[in-house]
């Protein structure tokens, strides 16, 4: 290491350091903050090492590191720059996986509040799979392919089986963590993407999830019963459920709909409600739709009429205003509570609003609607999501038998 950064480069790194630690407060100028951080490093250095001027060469000298390697510079300021650079670089080189993850959390939350839901989800998976493992204490620049493979094998084979979906989430977290170290912290560490992509496990290595049709969607007969119960209702929650049956909207998108989003033929999905944990606790906020995928959802005449009925019932800018405050909107839990209550009322298994979304997709696919159109209506970034997670048999046993009896083979 040459320790020859320019004053500007050192200032940028020092400023990033105080920014990462969230101490840009107190009304001080940036110059004052940088000089203060610089002086702290030099003061700490002088507690353990001395600085002197060589009487023969005139150069300023000190010793760095555990091996007490001596460095010399023509001027004292140049020497102090080298000292500051050494301690900054040494600190970054020795950051553990845990410290890098904490830096990632701070970085994402300070750059984009709408990332909070994702940050919360990543944090849960990090705590579950990595935080209590010895892997978290490794300096990230020393992590090898073998360390990553060993961690993955411990997750799969030690303890209880994990669902495949959770394992995929873990891999996403690990990729984000190492990308952050390399791209935002300038740490020379491995890229784990290829390692994680190359590791394969048999399906029986994972915990089986109950993805049965009965658990994932409303049957056709149940949807008919549900629609009959909601028909003629003027309750906003129940009209929202009807709208979801006909559009497959995410419940967060439903909550965030505004009057301006309805154009007769379409609903323009431009925002969504999210719930995330902040410093002051959990709260709801309006952000962009999932994966920032805005779209236009095409409406049939019956669904247009539902939208018109909703908007004619109030003057709020929101589709579904809160009855205690017309400037606020109903939240996802309001709709989930109502649909579960109605399911109990009409004597069918209670399911969430999200199951209506899966039911909508399955109905369209069962009726032969082009899969790309279904994907567009739902706002899926990948057609495989539509295939693998939203296509279920919506017919009960009697309906299935009637359909199959009409099939002639040969």
What's the helix and strand layout?
Blueprint lengths: L6 H14 L9 H19 L3 E2 L6 E5 L4 E5 L2 H18 L3 H15 L4 H16 L13 H13 L6 H20 L9 H6 L14 H4 L3 H11 L5 H12 L3 H5 L10 E4 L2 E7 L2 E7 L7 E4 L2 H12 L8 E2 L2 E5 L2 H14 L7 H14 L4 H8 L4 H7 L7 H9 L5
Helix pairs in contact: 1-2, 1-3, 2-3, 4-5, 4-7, 5-7, 11-13, 11-14, 11-15
Tell me roughly what share of residues is in helical segments.
40-55%
Q: Kindly state the mean pLDDT as a whole number? A: 87
Low-confidence sequence ranges: none
Strand content: 5-15%
List the quaternary state of the chains. Answer: single chain
The span between the termini is: 77 Å
Structural class: mainly alpha
Task: Give short descriptive properties of this protein.
410 residues, mainly alpha, three-stranded antiparallel sheet, 9 strands, 10% strand
Descriptive report:
- A hairpin with a 6-residue loop joins strand 1 and strand 2 (60-64).
- With 410 residues, this protein is mainly alpha-helical.
- It has 18 helices and 9 strands.
- It has a 3-stranded antiparallel beta sheet with strand order 1-2-3, covered by helices on one side. A two-stranded antiparallel ribbon has the order 4-7. Strands 5-6 form a two-stranded antiparallel ribbon.
How would you briefly describe this protein structure?
The protein is mainly alpha-helical and 410 residues long. It is built from 18 helices and nine strands.
């Amino acid at each position: 290491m040459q320790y020859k950064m320019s004053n500007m480069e050192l200032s940028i790194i020092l400023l990033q350091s105080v920014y990462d630690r969230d101490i840009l407060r107190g009304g001080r100028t940036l110059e004052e903050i940088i000089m203060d951080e610089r002086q702290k490093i030099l003061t700490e250095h002088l507690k353990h090492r001395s600085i002197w001027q060589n009487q023969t060469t005139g150069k300023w000298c000190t010793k760095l590191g555990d091996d007490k390697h001596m460095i010399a510079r023509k001027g004292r300021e140049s020497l102090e720059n080298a000292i500051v650079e050494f301690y900054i670089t040494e600190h970054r080189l020795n950051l553990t996986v845990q410290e890098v993850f904490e830096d990632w959390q701070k970085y994402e939350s300070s750059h984009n509040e709408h990332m909070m839901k994702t940050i919360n989800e990543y944090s849960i998976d990090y705590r579950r799979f990595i935080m209590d493992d010895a892997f978290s204490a490794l300096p990230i620049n020393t992590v090898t392919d073998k360390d990553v493979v060993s961690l993955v094998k411990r997750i799969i084979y030690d303890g209880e089986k994990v669902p495949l979906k959770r394992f995929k989430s873990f891999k996403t977290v690990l990729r984000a963590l190492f990308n952050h170290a390399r791209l935002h912290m300038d740490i020379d560490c491995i890229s784990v993407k290829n390692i994680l992509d190359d590791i394969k496990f048999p399906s029986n290595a994972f915990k089986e999830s109950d993805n049965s049709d009965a658990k994932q969607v409303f049957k056709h007969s149940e949807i008919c019963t549900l629609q009959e119960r909601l028909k003629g209702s003027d309750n906003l929650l129940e009209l929202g459920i009807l709208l979801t049956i006909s559009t497959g909207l995410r419940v967060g998108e439903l909550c965030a709909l505004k009057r301006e989003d309805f154009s007769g033929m379409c609903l323009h999905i431009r925002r969504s409600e999210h719930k995330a944990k902040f410093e002051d606790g959990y709260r709801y906020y309006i952000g962009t739709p999932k994966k920032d995928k805005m779209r236009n959802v095409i409406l049939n005449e019956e669904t247009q009429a539902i939208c018109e009925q909703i908007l004619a019932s109030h003057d709020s800018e929101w589709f579904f205003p809160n009855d205690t405050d017309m400037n606020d909107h109903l939240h996802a839990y309001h709709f989930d509570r109502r649909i579960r209550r109605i399911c109990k009322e009409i004597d069918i298994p209670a399911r969430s609003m999200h199951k209506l979304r899966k039911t909508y997709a399955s109905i369209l696919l069962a009726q032969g609607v082009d899969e790309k159109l279904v994907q567009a209506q739902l706002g899926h970034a990948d057609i495989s999501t539509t295939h693998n997670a939203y296509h279920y048999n919506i017919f009960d046993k009697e309906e299935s038998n009637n359909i199959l009896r009409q099939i002639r083979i040969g």
